[in-house]
Amino acid sequence: MGKSDTEEVAKDKLRLMKCKFNPLSRCDGSVMYSQGATVVIAAVMGPIEVKTQSLSIECSYLECNYRPKAGLPQVKERIREAAIRDVLELALLSEIYPRSKMSVQIQELEDRGSIDACALNAACLSMLIGGLPLKYSFAAVHCIINEEGEFIVDPELSETVHQQASFTFAFDSVDGNLLLVQTKGSFKIAQFNDIECICRAASADIFAFYRSNIGKYHGRSDDVLSVTSKEATMEM
Amino acid sequence: MSSALNIVMPGERITAVEDVAKGKRIILGPGLRRVNDTVVASKAGPLKHREPNTFWVDNYQRRYVPARGDLIIGIIKAKSGDVYRVDIGSADSASISYLAFEAATKKNRPDLNPGDLLYARVLNASPDIEPELVCVNSNGKRGKLGLLQDGFFFKCSLNLGRLLLRENCPALKALTEKLPYEIAVGVNGRIWVKAHSAAETVGLANAILSLEQAGHSEIDKVCDNLGDVLQA
């Protein structure tokens, strides 16, 4: 990569993450989450009453809805919704509340790149704050190969225009196993492996972000705050 | 209760609990589960410990999950056969028998209508069956349970409900100094209050809800200001 040091740092770091818990009052847990200029609201309800047709006596039923910024969900949104649902289903401990439904709603507010990863991270945060039982938390990272063959983690929308390939990975917090892989475009297997390693490293920052924000929400002390400010400067 | 702030995340193995478990039996509360020989968290929040052997995760939660013996506030939804259907904020609606009230017989039924508030105890709760409530203790006396008349009802997080129910709750003590009132707090995150006038009742409700925004460390400060909230 023939780039100066400062630009390289920007390319393999995530954009600044921010979150606000419980902006909505009527659901069981909600979060407004942003990565750079990409903003998403996610809300969860659960366990709640389930329709008899989707009732299961062994585990809870998971419902996931993704709404675009404007208009009705189309095929693109449905695909994203299905991908999110698959990951949530892996993470949720569904056997704890049989005969019930867990409902996750995700509303896109602004898509300025990496919306898939952002929506997944928002869904994870909302499940953490909504008190849903989970096997592990998860973090998703988006990465692209641009026309010069450089890797850019968590790209802006403008950076993705002439991309060669794009990747979205989701990792669990316990073993770091892959929960989701989405790829598009042409790439070599070595590049794929490199990007997986870069994304895995970046997911650690997201897990640290989850922990510090949950800690902060529980009205906790200065040491938690100092951690976040340190992170914030790191992100900058 | 330990005061150390120890945030755990889902999937995290909690070796501190496992160490205690080597010496004696332990009780795992909400948010903790046993996986083979390890103790793993399933919810995100501060890990709490009460001597001698109880551990749980005190996560933020708004949705109530019934547990036997809980005191809750329910809303009557319908009469059906020998039972009333009661909404207690959980996934399933609960049921309460006509005979689960003081001095109730088959002839002498309690006069309850949809919309009435009930302060009741959870008699049995299991994930597989709908919860059942009672309004009497084992001697057939009602105690403090039963219909809540007049007053004002609102919902809050489960954490706030538990905070108010703690022994020597500083918030209720601070409010008691300002005005006389009646309060019923359900662990299902529902609160009923009643003071002499409507204005006082609403002020009281606002004062209690202002605690919702406060973190644990600020509780004392907010309690000092509760009087001001009441005036407003």
TrEMBL record, chain A:
Q: Which InterPro entries match?
A: ExoRNase_PH_dom1, ExoRNase_PH_dom2_sf, PNPase/RNase_PH_dom_sf, Ribosomal_Su5_D2-typ_SF, RNase_PH
CC terms in the record's Gene Ontology section: cytoplasmic exosome (RNase complex); nuclear exosome (RNase complex); nucleolus
Domain Exoribonuclease phosphorolytic residue range list: 14-133
Q: Which PANTHER family match?
A: EXOSOME COMPLEX COMPONENT, EXOSOME COMPLEX COMPONENT RRP46
Per the similarity annotation, which family is this? Answer: Belongs to the RNase PH family.
Q: Where in the cell is it found?
A: Nucleus
Say where the protein is mainly found: nucleus
From the Swiss-Prot or TrEMBL record, what is one GO molecular function term? RNA binding
Gene Ontology annotations of biological process type = nuclear mRNA surveillance; poly(A)-dependent snoRNA 3'-end processing; rRNA catabolic process; rRNA processing; U4 snRNA 3'-end processing
Q: Which Gene3D superfamilies match?
A: GHMP Kinase, N-terminal domain (3.30.230.70)
Q: What is this protein called?
A: Exosome complex component RRP46
Xref: Pfam families: RNase_PH
Against SUPFAM superfamilies, the record matches this protein to:
Ribonuclease PH domain 2-like, Ribosomal protein S5 domain 2-like
Organism for this UniProt entry: Drosophila albomicans (Fruit fly)
Keyword terms, alphabetized: Exosome, Nucleus, rRNA processing
From TrEMBL, chain B:
Cellular compartments per GO CC: cytoplasmic exosome (RNase complex); nuclear exosome (RNase complex); nucleolus
Lineage top rank: taxon: Eukaryota
Residue ranges of every copy of the K Homology domain listed in the record:
151-198
Entry's localization field = Cytoplasm; Nucleus, Nucleolus
Q: Which InterPro entries match?
A: Exosome_RNA_bind1/RRP40/RRP4, KH_dom_type_1, KH_dom_type_1_sf, NA-bd_OB-fold, RRP40_KH-I, Rrp40_N_euk, Rrp40_S1
Family note: Belongs to the RRP40 family.
Task: Give the species.
Answer: Drosophila albomicans (Fruit fly)
Exosome complex exonuclease Rrp40 N-terminal domain: residues covered: 26-63
One GO molecular-function entry? RNA binding
Protein's UniProt keywords contain Ribosomal protein: no
Q: Name one GO biological process term.
A: exonucleolytic trimming to generate mature 3'-end of 5.8S rRNA from tricistronic rRNA transcript (SSU-rRNA, 5.8S rRNA, LSU-rRNA)
Lineage start: Eukaryota, Metazoa, Ecdysozoa, Arthropoda, Hexapoda
Keywords recorded for this protein, A-Z: Cytoplasm, Exosome, Nucleus, RNA-binding, rRNA processing
Q: What's the protein here called?
A: Exosome complex component RRP40
